[in-house]
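Sequence, C-alpha cells reproduced for absentees:
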Amino acid sequence: DGKGGKYINSPETPLYTKGEVLFGLHEGRVEIRRRGWALLCEGNFDLLMLHQAGFANAVAPLGTALTPAQAELLRRSAERVVLLFDGDAAGARAVRAAHPILAKAGLPAKVVTLPPGEDPDSFLRAQGAEALQQRVDGAPGIVEHLVEDAAARARDDAAGKAEAIAELGPVLTLVTSPIERQLHLERIGRAFGIRDVEAIKEQLRRGARAGRTRNRRAESQPRREAAAAPAPRRRIPPPPRIELAVVGALLDAPELLASRAAEVQDLLTSPDLRAILRDASRQVVERGRVEAAALLEMAEENGAVGWLERRLVVQRYDAPQAAELLDEALPRLRKNIREQRARALRREILEARRLGDHERANALSREQMAVLRGDAAQGEADTTTSDDSPDEPSEAGLR
C-alpha cells in the first residue's frame, strides 16, 4: 500500500547476528584508525549521508541499541568514540544506555547534541558538514553531557534534584580516575546549585547501590522463580582496619599490585579483601588498570562491598605514600599472623593433653616455641602499637 516502514529488519541467522555487526565498519575502518576516533550514529541513512559529507569514520548499529560486542569491535580500531544520535528523547536515552557499555570496553566518549527533532541526515542537509564538524570539535565528554542532561531533566524541587543526582551514581561509579571523579563532583554541584560535596557523594552512593540492586534483581529473577528457598545471608565479621588500609593503598596505587599483591595476599585474614585484591590484580594484568565498576560488580556478594564502594570514591595515597604504608604495615600483619598461629597451637596443645596424646602435645609445643621465637626476632618495631588492639589500628596511624 506504499506505507511501509523506513527500515525493513532482516532476520537473524546462524551467520548473521545484528548485535555483533556495525554498519560501515568495513568501509570506515581505515579512516577510523587514521583519525583515532569513530563517529557512532543510529540510522543507516544517517551513516550514508555522513560518509557522503566526508565523515568516512562513521559507523552505526544495525537495528539494535549498542551492544558490548559492537563496543569491542570499535575498541579494536578506535581510541575514542563520538556519539551522534538523534536530537530527541530516544536519542538521549540511547546515549545513557551506551555509556556503561563504552566505559566497560575502555572507550572514552564524547557526545554531539543536535537541535530537537534533528538527526544527522537532516542536520547535514540543512546546515552542512562544516557546521557538524564544529559541533564534533566542541563536543563535551559523555559524563559531562550526562550531568547536564540530568540537571536539565530534573524537577525544580529538592526531591527532584536528589532523584536526578542519584541517577548519576552508576555513571560516576564507572569513572576510574580520582581526578576526573573530583572534577565531575564539582560539576554536579554547579549544575544543581549544591555546594556540599559530601552530600552529593552520599546521594551518588545511594544511586549506585540502587542501580546495582536493580541489576541484581533483573539478573536473579529466573533463579528466584526456580529456587525453593532463599539462601541464608552470610554473617562475616568486618575485616581488620589494618587490612582495609593496606588493600586501600594498593587500590590507590595499582602500579604496586604486580610487585606487592602476592606478598599482601598471604597476610590477609579477610577472605573478602583477598578476593578484592585478587580481582584488582587480575584487572591490572589483563587491562592495564583497575576498573572501579568491574571491581564492584565482582564484589557484589562480598561482605566488604560497602567499604569498597566508599573507598573507590577517594584517593588517599600516591604511589610513594602507598609503598611507605605497606612497608610499615606488613610487618604488623606478619606479627598478627604469628600471634594467631601461636594461639591456635595453644588450643591444640591443651586438647592433645586432655586426650592424653603427650607426644603430639610436645611436638605442638616445640612448634609454638618456634613461632614465638620468630615473633621475638622481629624486634621492637613490630610490637609498637598505639592501643591494645594490634589487629585493628586506625588507617591514619599507618601514615
User: Anything to note?
Assistant: The first strand starts at residue 22 and ends at 23. Residues 379-399 have pLDDT under 50 and may be disordered. DSSP finds 18 helices and five strands in the chain. Residues 267 and 334 are 6 Å apart (CA to CA).
